[in-house]
Specification:
Blueprint lengths: L12 E3 L15 E11 L2 E3 L7 E5 L7 E4 L1 E3 L10 E8 L3 E11 L4 E4 L4 E4 L3 E2 L6 E4 L3 E9 L9 E4 L2 E3 L2 E2 L5 E7 L2 E8 L6 E8 L4 E2 L4 E3 L6 E3 L3 E5 L3 E9 L8 E7 L5 E7 L10 E6 L5 E8 L8 E10 L8 E11 L2 E2 L1 E2 L2 E6 L3 E9 L10 E6 L3 E4 L5 E7 L2 E8 L9 H11 L7 H7 L9 H11 L12 E4 L18 E6 L8 E5 L20
Parallel strand pairs: 2-11, 2-12, 13-20, 13-21, 22-32, 23-33, 34-41
Antiparallel strand pairs: 1-9, 2-3, 2-7, 4-5, 4-8, 6-7, 8-9, 8-10, 13-17, 14-15, 14-18, 16-17, 18-19, 22-24, 24-29, 25-28, 25-30, 26-29, 27-28, 30-31, 30-33, 34-37, 35-36, 35-38, 38-40, 39-41
Helix pairs in contact: 1-3
């Protein structure tokens, strides 16, 4: 995940006198939210069993701006195995204030800062007695290099450990690297990508405030075909949901024919239909057949009519309906009882459906920073309770569906459609760098092709040489940047600082218009356009 913003997080402690700190919650507030949380402190759970232990929340004013003193709830097996802290966090602002946390450890007479922070939102509850929100007073970091065999999109590799995940980025020394911040502990670290064998390194120790480097991965393409649904699926009582059917297949193998039978508990699920629309086979001249007449199963058939398609991805979308009588929390397996590609039985995987009483959506549009041109094929990466990816369509629209309530972050990236640069762009950047041309905030972002938070003659040089075909990259591999809000105040730039992600703490409602603004680096004139974009650039 990329952020073009500069910050330092310090984890420290302060030794006090023998008395606990004089933290007192402020009064006269109008709004509140509830946080149920556990705190990991020096690899152990920080508990309130010692009456003098304290967990407190603070607003932007620091220790004089105490927003909550935590109340310790004892463990109550089998309902919940560990105790947790309840905090009623107060504010005079409806939303947006940054809340930070500190603990006082009575046994050492010390204060420790928690690493995490949250954004205040009135009337919501974060965490529960069963799944508390996790805070930590210390953090460790995993680092490593990612390599893959062949020409796959390495940016889509997912590196996971515990509940954390990330994707690699191109560094200045010419490698794809990743960095993943985690609470201290022992982890199995994995690297995976569609069409490649998953690699796992077990028993990796993450120590407080330490960097564990050298956890490297080399991914190889699978040498056998696979069919699979997402490992986890969610559906709401009495409502429909759609599940993508994936194929992973060696690049040299063409898809001649596929036969699939998918089975499930007919008392919980019904398969209603399936479609190729939106899949990799939509426009590839395949005959497609669906038999959803038998309770507890759906049968799909694919047959090539002309040239064989070769590639991995989603080959169909299957629509299911959840029985309205199915109990919330019920889980059921969805399995392949038949999976054949080109007359060979292939590997398949079992998925698990969980019945929910509420699920959520996030949708939005990706627009170029000038003339409302839409931007297709932008990769949207959602990280949190579940890690998901999708891409914007030809109209620049994206959708994440069937999301469980929880904390998420959302980022956007793009690595194609690299036109739009010319000598005019280079000229304007040069003139701006010597004070002869004024840029808007978005044009300043476009001008900083070196991504060093300044605009200089070096940026102008790289744009000119790129436009002339003399160099292949403007920097170390970033061609586009995206940000969630219009930027109108940049009088103090440089340095150029802006937020690139959206945050949901938590996601607990359907959200639309979660838009991003895209900038092709170097295109200060704003005349970029995509051949697949339905709304082309036009002159003012």
């Amino acid at each position: 995940m990329k952020k073009f913003i500069f910050f330092i997080i310090c984890i420290s402690f302060l030794t006090l006198s023998a008395d606990p700190p004089d933290w007192e919650q402020i009064g006269g507030t109008q709004f509140s939210m509830l946080l149920r949380t556990q705190v990991t402190h020096q690899e152990n759970l920080f508990e309130g069993i010692d009456a003098d232990n304290i967990l407190a929340a603070f607003g932007p004013g620091g220790t004089e701006d105490c927003r909550a003193i935590g109340f310790w709830i004892e463990a109550n097996p089998p309902l919940y195995e560990n105790g947790f802290w309840d905090l009623g966090i107060v504010s005079n602002q409806f939303e947006g204030e940054i809340i930070t946390f500190k603990i006082y450890e009575a046994s050492t007479d010390s204060i420790f800062d928690c690493y995490q922070e949250i954004s205040f939102t009135d009337g919501i509850t974060i965490g529960s007695s069963v799944e508390p929100y996790m805070l930590s007073t210390s953090i460790g970091e995993l680092q490593g290099i990612i390599e893959i065999e062949g020409s796959g999109d390495i940016e889509k590799v997912t590196i996971s450990a515990g509940t954390g995940s990330t994707h690699p980025t191109w560094n200045a020394t010419g490698f794809w690297e990743y960095s993943l911040s985690l609470s201290p502990g022992i982890y199995d670290v994995s690297a995976s990508m569609l069409g490649y064998e998953e690699e796992i390194v077990t028993g990796v120790e993450v120590e407080p405030d330490e960097i564990t480097s050298g956890i490297n991965f080399y991914l190889e393409p699978v040498d056998y075909p696979m069919l699979f649904l997402p490992a986890e699926l969610f559906g709401i009582q009495g409502e429909f949901f759609t599940a993508p059917l994936y194929i992973s297949i060696p690049a040299e193998v063409g898809i001649e024919g596929i036969n699939v039978t998918i089975s499930f508990d007919e008392e919980i699920l019904e398969a209603t239909s399936a479609t190729l629309s939106g899949s990799i086979l939509e426009n590839e001249n395949y005959t497609f057949g669906v038999n959803a007449n038998n309770p507890g199963e759906i049968i799909l058939g694919f047959s090539a009519n002309e040239d064989l398609y070769s590639g991995s991805g989603i080959i169909a979308f299957i629509q299911f309906s959840v029985n309205s009588a199915a109990e919330v929390g019920t889980t059921t397996e969805i399995s392949f009882t038949n999976a054949v590609i080109n007359e060979f039985v292939v590997t398949s995987a079992i998925s698990v459906l969980t019945v929910m009483d509420q699920l959520y959506q996030i949708s939005g549009n990706i627009e170029y920073f000038k003339n409302e041109t839409t931007v297709p094929n932008v990769l949207l990466n959602l990280e949190g309770i579940h890690n998901l990816q999708t891409s914007s369509n030809d109209e620049g629209i994206y959708l994440f569906d069937y999301l469980v309530e929880g904390n998420y972050s959302l980022s956007a990236s793009k690595s194609d459609d690299l036109g739009g640069l010319s000598g005019t762009d280079a000229s304007r950047v040069f003139r701006h760098s010597i004070g002869l041309y004024n840029f808007s905030c978005h044009e300043m972002i476009a001008a900083d092709v070196t991504l060093d938070a300044t605009i200089s003659t070096t940026d102008a040089s790289r744009i000119a040489r790129y436009a002339a075909g003399l160099i292949q990259d403007l920097n170390s591999g970033t061609d586009w940047v995206f940000f969630p809000e219009e930027i109108e105040n940049c009088e103090d730039w440089p340095p150029i600082i802006y937020e690139t992600d959206r945050y949901y703490s938590p996601l607990n409602e359907n959200l639309t218009a979660e838009n991003f603004i895209g900038v092709r680096l170097g295109d200060v004139t704003g005349n970029w356009s995509s051949e697949t974009s339905r709304k082309k650039y036009r002159d003012d």
